[in-house]
């Protein structure tokens, strides 16, 4: 399998479409996050075209670098090579029966936002001008962090049983909110500012240390304690359809632009 790397945002969307198609054929849960990430990329592309970002050219460059980190991790995993630890854990979980759709999505968001976004941001900036990225960074990070709430709404439409479960356990809602707001928003920008000032010869060690921290978060997403895990397993037993059908369900929801579309 070729290690594909994009040069434009259109190529990013094309390569994500290919991964989604392969995931459907293989019944791989990797396609769940990829489908949602594709929607984020389309939102960013539209935002660039509509002038949402202060610097559209820089935003496309950032988006491509950001996406290429995911593409690289995916192709490394498929080739039995070793990607970032947090991505490897996420991909490994995609082969397990028990994680529910939300957990698969959060594992992808965790690796991509908390590791990849800070690195990509630093690569399009210098220590002197990174502050000028803050407004556009907040735009992209808002799109990404809003995924959690949006996904919850999407899944309630697909699996109404989830509504009952969420009402029975407020801890589930807290699990989503704490993750999306505290970790994704604040951590990624802080890391970007720490990373951009590092000399080149110190960056790889920094990435490895960050990767290890993010993998710990991934393990918490995978096993968030006895009560929440038990509820998730109950939800999993009521999830309907194949993995491919779940990917299609998410895509249909996105295409119809109902309230759970990422915007």
Helix count from the secondary structure assignment? 12
Low-confidence stretches: 257-263
Number of strands: 0
| SSE run | HHHHHHHHHHHH
The whole-number mean of residue pLDDT values reads 84
Instruction: Please state the CA-atom Rg, rounded to the nearest Å.
Output: 18 Å
**Structural class computed from helices and strand pairing:** mainly alpha
- Major pleated sheet: none
Distance from N terminus to C terminus (CA atoms, Å) equals 33 Å
Percent in strands: under 5%
Global outline = globular
Residues in helices, as a percent range: over 70%
Keywords:
mainly alpha; 12 helices; 263 residues; 0% strand
What is the topology?
Elements: H1 9-26, H2 30-50, H3 56-78, H4 85-93, H5 101-123, H6 134-145, H7 147-158, H8 161-168, H9 170-196, H10 200-222, H11 226-238, H12 243-256
Helix pairs in contact: 1-2, 1-3, 1-12, 2-3, 2-5, 2-12, 3-5, 4-5, 4-10, 5-7, 5-9, 5-10, 6-9, 8-9
Report on this model:
By secondary structure, this protein is an all-alpha fold. Helices cover 77% and strands 0% of the residues. It is built from 12 helices and no strands. The protein has helices spanning 9-26, 30-50, 56-78, 85-93, 101-123, 134-145, 147-158, 161-168, 170-196, 200-222, 226-238, 243-256. It is globular, with a radius of gyration of 18 Å. The two termini are 33 Å apart. The relative contact order is 0.15.
Question: Could you give a quick summary of the protein structure above?
Answer:
By secondary structure, the chain is mainly α. It has twelve helices and no strands. It starts with 8 loop residues before the first helix and ends in a 7-residue tail after the last helix.
């Amino acid at each position: 399998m070729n290690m594909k790397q994009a040069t434009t945002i259109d190529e990013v969307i094309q390569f994500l479409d290919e991964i989604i198609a392969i995931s459907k054929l293989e019944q791989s849960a990797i396609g769940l996050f990829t489908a949602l990430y594709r929607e984020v990329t389309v939102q960013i592309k539209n935002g660039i075209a509509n002038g949402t970002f202060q610097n559209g050219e820089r935003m496309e460059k950032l988006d491509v670098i950001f996406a290429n980190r995911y593409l690289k991790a995916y192709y490394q995993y498929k080739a039995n090579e070793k990607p970032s630890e947090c991505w490897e854990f996420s991909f490994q979980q995609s082969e397990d029966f028990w994680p529910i759709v939300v957990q698969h999505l959060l594992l992808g968001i965790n690796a991509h936002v908390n590791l990849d976004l800070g690195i990509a941001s630093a690569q399009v900036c210098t220590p002197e001008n990174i502050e000028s990225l803050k407004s556009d960074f907040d735009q992209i990070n808002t799109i990404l962090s809003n995924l959690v709430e949006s996904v919850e709404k999407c899944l309630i439409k697909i699996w109404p049983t989830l509504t009952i479960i969420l009402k029975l356990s407020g801890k589930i809602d807290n699990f989503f909110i704490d993750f999306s707001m505290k970790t994704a928003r604040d951590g990624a920008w802080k890391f970007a500012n720490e990373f951009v000032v590092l000399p080149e010869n110190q960056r790889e060690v920094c990435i490895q240390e960050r990767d290890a921290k993010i993998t710990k978060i991934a393990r918490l997403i995978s096993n968030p304690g006895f009560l929440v895990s038990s509820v998730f397993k109950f939800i999993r037993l009521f999830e309907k359809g194949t993995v491919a059908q779940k990917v299609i369900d998410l895509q249909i929801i996105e295409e119809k632009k109902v309230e759970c579309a990422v915007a």
